[in-house]
């Protein structure tokens, strides 16, 4: 086996093992799960581990160098028109290829699918171009985020409650495992040719700004399309009993995900070929490496998406439904928090972000520290989601104050932490959230007789919100520690200077006495 694949697979194993153990314990102690369903879960976990290993290596070999190369080219052109047009087209095309966007469109029956998909894609492309221009013009990230989220908050007061949760979820589903590594690498590439002190700070923020576009797009649609009579059609659980039944479920699903991943990767592969023809940036050996990286990415995503959609989603629904229908429904909150803490480690794009953060900050913000911070944030968000399901709390009561806190914090936190925080929000709400946490929320909501569109949906939005606050609090702590260290250094230096001065005076007095 390729040593790199082995290394990445072992990292994935360490990330997925805790959530597998948690589900195993829950299925034995609290929520008995049918043997066929649990076998599918274990098979899904194996596919997820192998898939994550291949995906992370593929993204490192293909997405990262391609994104950086295009970012460097845009920066060197120094032409705003080229930057805007290129980034708008890229952002729109990549969003159209996101599999999760199709899922979102099917969940909003009051808007025609193509209308919603194109609105979200154009929203993403528009703000992606704004994010690219920001790096070139060196505009402070917190200023743009303040304006964008002010627009979001104002629009939220004019949108029906049935639309609000889905609108915020749209920002999460469009930043999937295909788009995030590519977009983040572009930011690094654009900032790499700058020599000013803020270059590393500006390498983050592309995902942060871009993910607001879909939210605004769906909020605007919600004002014009009234969601009366729209209902969520719950998915029927599999009836797998034997291992053969479970194997058939995966075999029937694999062709579907092969098709989805091909549709997702082809636009980026096309960009690579066009970029290479125009720039001739990569040599034959590099081209071969990138193409192999695309193959690894393809294999990894097919395995990952099949494993997580077929194996994980049903267990999430069963746990949520059975806990909520028992006398221990309040256990949903601590169980949800525990699952949220560990499940974020299994998000493939999270590991890409954490590595980039560690590289750009030269280890000042380590991958371990980022993992811990993200886990705490997502744990809180899942706990809040379960509390919403039980009590029926309107999502705006959490989201609006949450975003206000995040924006206020951005005025006091070092710029690089603002970019990392808002990028991490988009990255955290990936396929694991939509295929395990959302079914967990829906299963609980169905059992409690709640409104799925208003009470269950929104978990993706909350998962995208809490890392914004958690990472910025980490940045604030870092800033305070830095100031304390500087004061301590000054306190040590000043007495030394005074002592040296006293010694000089004494020496001069001795010399005078000698004379």
Topology of helices and strands:
Elements: H1 3-29, H2 35-77, H3 80-96, H4 99-106, H5 113-137, H6 141-156, H7 161-173, H8 179-192, H9 199-202, H10 206-210, H11 212-224, H12 243-279, H13 284-325, H14 332-343, H15 348-360, H16 367-391, H17 396-409, H18 415-428, H19 431-448, H20 452-456, H21 459-514
**Residue-averaged pLDDT:** 81
Kindly state the percentage of residues in helix.
over 70%
Question: What is the terminal separation in angstroms?
Answer: 83 Å
* SS strand fraction: under 5%
What class, by secondary structure content?
A: mainly alpha
**Helix run count:** 21
Inertia-based shape: globular
**Biggest β-sheet strands, sense, barrel:** none
Low-confidence stretches: none
Q: Encode the helix/strand succession as letters.
A: HHHHHHHHHHHHHHHHHHHHH
Task: Give the radius of gyration.
Answer: 25 Å
Count the E strands. Answer: 0
Describe this structure in words.
The protein is mostly helical and 515 residues long. Helices cover 82% and strands 0% of the residues. Helix 1 (3-29) packs antiparallel against helix 14 (332-343), helix 12 (243-279) runs antiparallel to helix 13 (284-325) and helix 14 (332-343) packs antiparallel against helix 19.
Key attributes of the depicted protein:
about 80% helix; mainly alpha; globular; 21 helices; about 0% strand
């Amino acid at each position: 086996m390729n040593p790199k694949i082995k290394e990445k697979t072992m990292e994935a194993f360490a990330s997925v093992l805790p959530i597998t153990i948690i589900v195993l314990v829950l299925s034995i102690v609290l929520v008995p799960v049918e043997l066929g369903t649990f076998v599918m879960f274990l098979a899904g976990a194996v596919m997820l581990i192998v898939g994550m290993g291949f995906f992370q290596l593929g993204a490192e070999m293909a997405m990262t160098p391609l994104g950086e190369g295009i970012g460097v080219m845009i920066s060197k052109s120094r032409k705003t028109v080229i930057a805007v047009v290129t980034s708008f087209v890229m952002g729109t095309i990549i969003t159209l290829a996101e599999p999760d966007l199709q899922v979102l469109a099917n969940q909003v029956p009051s808007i025609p699918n193509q209308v919603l998909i194109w609105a979200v894609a154009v929203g993403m492309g528009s703000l992606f171009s704004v994010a690219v221009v920001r790096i070139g013009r060196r505009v402070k990230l917190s200023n743009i985020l303040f304006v964008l989220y002010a627009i979001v908050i104002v629009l939220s007061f004019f949108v029906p409650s049935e639309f609000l949760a889905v609108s915020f979820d749209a920002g999460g589903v469009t930043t999937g495992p295909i788009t995030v590594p590519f977009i983040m690498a572009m930011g690094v590439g654009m900032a790499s040719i700058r020599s000013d002190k803020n270059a590393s700070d500006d390498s983050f923020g592309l995902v942060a700004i871009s993910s607001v576009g879909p939210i605004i797009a769906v909020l605007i649609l919600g004002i014009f399309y009234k969601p009366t009579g729209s209902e969520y059609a719950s998915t029927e659980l599999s009836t797998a009993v034997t291992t053969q039944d479970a194997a058939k479920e995966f075999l029937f699903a694999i062709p579907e995900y092969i098709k989805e991943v091909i549709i997702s990767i082809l636009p980026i592969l096309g960009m690579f070929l066009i970029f290479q023809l125009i720039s001739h940036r990569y040599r034959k050996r590099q081209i071969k490496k990138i193409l192999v990286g695309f193959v690894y990415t393809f294999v990894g995503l097919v395995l990952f998406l099949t494993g997580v959609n077929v194996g994980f989603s049903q267990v999430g629904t069963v746990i949520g439904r059975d806990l909520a229908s028992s006398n221990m429904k309040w256990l949903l909150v601590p169980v949800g928090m525990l699952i949220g803490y560990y499940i974020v480690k299994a998000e493939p794009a999270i590991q890409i972000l954490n590595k980039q953060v560690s590289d750009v900050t030269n280890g000042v913000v380590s991958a371990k520290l980022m993992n811990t911070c993200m886990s705490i944030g997502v744990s809180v968000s899942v706990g809040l989601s379960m509390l919403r399901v039980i009590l029926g709390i309107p999502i705006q009561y959490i989201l609006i104050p949450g975003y206000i806190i995040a924006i206020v914090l951005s005025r006091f936190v070092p710029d690089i932490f603002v970019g990392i925080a808002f990028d991490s929000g988009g990255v955290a709400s990936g396929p694991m959230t939509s295929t395990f946490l959302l079914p967990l929320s829906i299963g609980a909501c169905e059992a409690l007789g709640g409104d799925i569109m208003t009470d269950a949906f929104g978990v993706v939005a909350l998962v995208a919100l809490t890392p914004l606050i958690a990472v910025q609090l980490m940045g604030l702590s870092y800033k305070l520690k830095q100031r304390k260290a500087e004061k301590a250094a000054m306190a040590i230096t000043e007495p030394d200077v005074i002592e040296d001065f006293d010694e000089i005076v004494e020496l001069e007095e001795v010399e005078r006495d000698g004379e």
